[in-house]
């Protein structure tokens, strides 16, 4: 093994949201002098305003540090440490898996005040599957309510490590950072690549630069890449010239060559994000590698919603904004669709609820676009009686009930970690969402892990919020897709004067349809302004009406001028008014105000 490879260490950080991952990364950068004091700001690697405000990492980042250490013979040696930061949220778990695949070791950070959480466990198992060396760290030990001994007991139970292998640290005060750097060099193995083999690189991330195009971040598993090489991206089959390659410091530093074990970036003038896929393999055109790196898959959206501009004339601006966002975020998919009620818009695919929220927020902040998002729904498999299988993202496109053989919906395997006091409330919540308890086990004396199978469609609305309020913010939640299952689903339509409003259609389980239909009708009755004629608000499944409310007409008192006299005079005037109202009803149309849409979409 040559000198360069044996002195490289590639590692990632695994932690739950808000366990101090980004703060500890800042201390590592400071300690290795990667960053000067004048550039120092909190969460250096989280460069999006949204990431700083919410305290979460949305996009993974990578940075290289140099660390000098004196060997046992007294000779100072220089090491290259590549930190590949990972997003912590469950929506981005595929990105996390690719970042983990690019590393040989992982720092497992657990908050000394909170203990092990669900997302930490799922990412930890992923790291163990990839044979990473795990360095357990108890962070935030400077906090007055820290419980380092209890947390260490949890780590020993779960990982089977020795107590002396666990490092106590504080990202805030910098305590223990020197021990962490020493442990990285001592415990994490060097990469096992051959610089002379055919080129094989793993893409673990990509970013968009408006001047240079798409920049792909990769780790070289085998081989050597030089500037100007002709390379091929295996999964997409596209071929490019490496215009610039280099290493990732706080900003990018171009180099002439990079060899096995190194982490770097490549710029080759790629303009569309679809051409760079996370998990893809890069190789030389002339001397390609025998096989691609295992584990690549196309990221599939889990959740779909219609996104419409509030002003219909902003449609083209919205298209341009979504296209620009897609350059930064290849997991966002979209296609045009139209709705009678909302005009022209797009049906967008998201990885999950957080991803959808972030996209909405970024459209508003970065592109100043105000949008309406329809009820989010998951993708269903519809089996027709002819034997076709259709994938449905939009309830409006459902075939007729008579033609459907069966409908399957996606399920997830959810892991919930909570204090034992809240078990009852959480069980009730999950079973109410058609969940099925698979197993439960104690992690420590007062903390439990519950494993449920749940339909994804049931958790997209408000499951997470309810879970947090039941457990007073203590429970943590993580999930993996778990295939499709047949379900008794029906399409619920909302009709105004007999006309269906397509933007309010939803696919829902038969047992919940009645209550949801009734509540939607009641809400619309409050919010739709009264017309000159009676308006019927109905909820229907196919041809069967399951709920109805009537918005009464606004009417003028036409009999006011008749005082006394014969009753037939009053009746004549009322009959005349009735005919007018009837004629109005035939030609009148009911406008649904924007706030009515928003209120119905927020029904829990």
Chart the SSEs and their pairings:
Blueprint: H1 3-6, E1 8-14, H2 21-31, H3 49-54, E2 62-70, E3 76-84, H4 93-101, E4 105-111, H5 118-129, E5 133-139, H6 148-159, E6 167-168, H7 177-187, E7 200-209, E8 213-222, E9 224-226, E10 230-233, E11 238-241, E12 244-248, E13 252-255, E14 257-259, E15 263-270, E16 281-284, E17 303-309, H8 315-328, E18 333-339, E19 343-350, H9 353-367, E20 371-373, E21 377-378, E22 380-384, E23 389-392, E24 404-419, H10 423-432, E25 436-444, E26 447-455, H11 456-459, H12 463-470, E27 476-487, E28 489-496, E29 499-500, E30 506-509, H13 510-527, E31 535-541, E32 544-551, H14 567-587, H15 594-601
Parallel strand pairs: 1-3, 1-4, 4-5, 5-6
Antiparallel strand pairs: 2-3, 7-8, 7-16, 8-15, 9-14, 10-11, 10-16, 12-13, 12-15, 17-19, 17-20, 17-21, 18-19, 22-23, 22-24, 24-26, 24-27, 25-26, 28-29, 28-30, 28-31, 31-32
Helix pairs in contact: 8-9, 13-15
């Amino acid at each position: 093994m040559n000198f360069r490879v044996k002195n490289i260490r590639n590692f990632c950080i695994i932690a739950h949201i808000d366990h101090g991952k980004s703060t500890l990364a800042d201390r590592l950068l400071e300690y290795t002098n990667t960053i000067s004091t004048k550039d120092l700001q909190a969460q250096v690697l989280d460069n999006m305003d949204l990431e700083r405000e919410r305290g979460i990492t949305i996009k993974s980042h990578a940075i290289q540090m140099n660390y000098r250490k004196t060997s046992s013979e007294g000779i100072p040696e220089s090491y290259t440490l590549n930190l590949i930061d990972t997003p912590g949220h469950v929506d981005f778990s595929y990105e996390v898996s690719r970042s983990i695949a690019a590393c040989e070791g992982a720092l497992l950070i657990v908050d000394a005040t909170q203990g092990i959480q669900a997302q930490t466990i799922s990412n930890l198992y992923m790291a163990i599957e990839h044979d990473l060396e795990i360095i357990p760290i108890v962070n935030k030990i400077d906090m007055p309510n820290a419980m380092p001994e209890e947390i260490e007991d949890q780590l020993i139970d779960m990982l089977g490590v020795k107590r002396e292998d666990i490092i106590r640290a504080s990202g805030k005060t910098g305590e223990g950072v020197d021990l962490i750097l020493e442990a990285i060099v001592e415990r994490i193995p060097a990469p096992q690549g051959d610089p002379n083999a055919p080129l094989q690189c793993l893409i673990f991330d990509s970013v968009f630069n408006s001047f240079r195009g798409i920049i792909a971040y990769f780790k070289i598993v085998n081989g050597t890449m030089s500037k100007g090489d002709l390379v091929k991206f295996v999964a997409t089959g596209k071929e490019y010239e490496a215009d610039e390659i280099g290493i990732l410091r706080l900003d990018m530093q171009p180099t002439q060559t990079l060899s096995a074990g190194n982490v770097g970036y490549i710029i080759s003038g790629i303009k569309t994000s679809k051409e760079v896929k996370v998990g893809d393999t890069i190789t030389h055109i002339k001397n390609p590698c025998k096989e691609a790196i295992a584990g690549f898959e196309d990221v599939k959206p889990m959740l779909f919603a219609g996104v419409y501009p509030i002003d219909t004339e902003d449609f083209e601006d919205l298209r341009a904004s979504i296209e620009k966002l897609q350059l930064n975020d290849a997991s966002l998919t979209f296609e045009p669709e139209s709705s009678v009620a909302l005009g022209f818009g797009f049906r967008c695919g998201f990885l999950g609820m957080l991803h959808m929220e972030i996209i909405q927020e970024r459209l508003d902040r970065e592109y100043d676009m105000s949008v309406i998002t329809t009820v989010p729904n998951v993708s269903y498999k519809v089996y027709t009686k002819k034997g076709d299988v259709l994938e449905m993202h939009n309830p409006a496109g459902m075939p007729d009930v008579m033609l459907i053989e069966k409908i399957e919906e996606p399920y997830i395997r959810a892991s919930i970690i909570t204090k034992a006091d809240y078990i009852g409330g959480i069980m009730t919540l999950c079973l109410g969402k058609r969940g099925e308890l698979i197993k439960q086990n104690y992690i420590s004396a007062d903390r439990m892990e519950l494993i449920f199978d749940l339909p994804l469609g049931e958790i997209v609305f408000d499951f997470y919020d309810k879970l947090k309020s039941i457990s007073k913010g203590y429970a943590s939640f993580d999930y993996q897709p778990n295939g499709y299952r047949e379900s008794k689903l029906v399409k619920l339509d909302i009709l105004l004067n007999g006309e269906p409003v397509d933007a309010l259609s939803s696919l829902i389980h038969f047992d919940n349809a009645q209550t949801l239909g009734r509540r939607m009708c009641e809400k619309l009755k409050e919010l739709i302004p009264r017309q000159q004629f009676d308006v019927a608000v109905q909820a229907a499944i196919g041809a069967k009406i399951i709920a109805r409310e009537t918005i009464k007409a606004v009417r003028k008192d036409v009999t006011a001028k008749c005082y006394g006299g014969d009753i037939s005079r009053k009746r004549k005037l009322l009959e005349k008014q009735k005919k007018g109202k009837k004629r109005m009803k035939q030609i009148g149309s009911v406008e649904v105000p924007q706030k009515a849409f928003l209120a119905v979409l927020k029904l829990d």
